Amino acid sequence: MDNKNGTTFFTPTLKYKEMILLEYIEQNPDTTQKELGKIIGSAASMINLYLDEEEAKGYLKREYLSSKTVKYHITQKGKKRKNYLNISYMQELINHYKLAKKELEDFLLNATKKGHHNIILYGAGEVCEIILTTLKNSSRLDISIPAIIDDDLEKRGKTIENIPIISKKDLDKYPHDAIFISSYTFEEQIAKELKNIGYEEDRIIKFFDGRK
Asked: Do the beta carbons of residue 37 and residue 44 sit within 8 Å?
């Protein structure tokens, strides 16, 4: 799911909703239950139950300005709770990052065992940047990236981490052992195009379908 807080892959557990609820109320004491419902992805009827629980635990107080207007105040205890939830959430993110980083490192390490130490990346997007960051921070990998291919004319001639972005027509100008397709969306299409121009299939590294 996608929400306003930028989380795309994590299921919004009760703890996560509680963290977002406390954070938002702290920054927006004049918020409404309807607005809170949109923020944490819950029905407005459920928000009142969440607020009752938080108030019963001493995490917030409600100030009734009128029969229809309520102002929310996060207590000191509520701030401590919010900080604890934030730290716990960050730890889970770090754990997920470590697992993903190790999987990518292991995959690249396997490529080096096959003699691929000079690898051209195909696709100058987010995946490319993740790979470059992984290589930069890894002590296990002996891999050089002489160039990055991209079919976007606006990207060609530019650099990422001082690595030139080139056309696939210029492949021969950059000695390399293999091409790593750093594009999730166009992986199959790129692999097909490389084979069509006579590039050896066993030198095409495909991460997303688990090959190589």
From this structure: yes
Amino acid at 44: A
Amino acid at position 42, single letter: S
- What pTM was estimated for this model as a whole? 0.69
Q: Convert the pLDDT of each residue in 129-150 to its tens digit.
A: 999 999 999 999 999 999 999 9
Residue 100, domain member (yes or no): no
* Residues forming a β-bridge with 204: 179
Please name every residue paired with 61 in a beta bridge, in sequence order, or none if there are none: 73
Same domain, 89 and 119: no
Structural tokens at position 194: 């490389």
Pairwise CA distance, residues 117 & 120, whole Å: 10
**CATH code of residue 73:** 1.10.10.10
User: Structural domain of residue 198, as residue ranges?
Assistant: 114-206
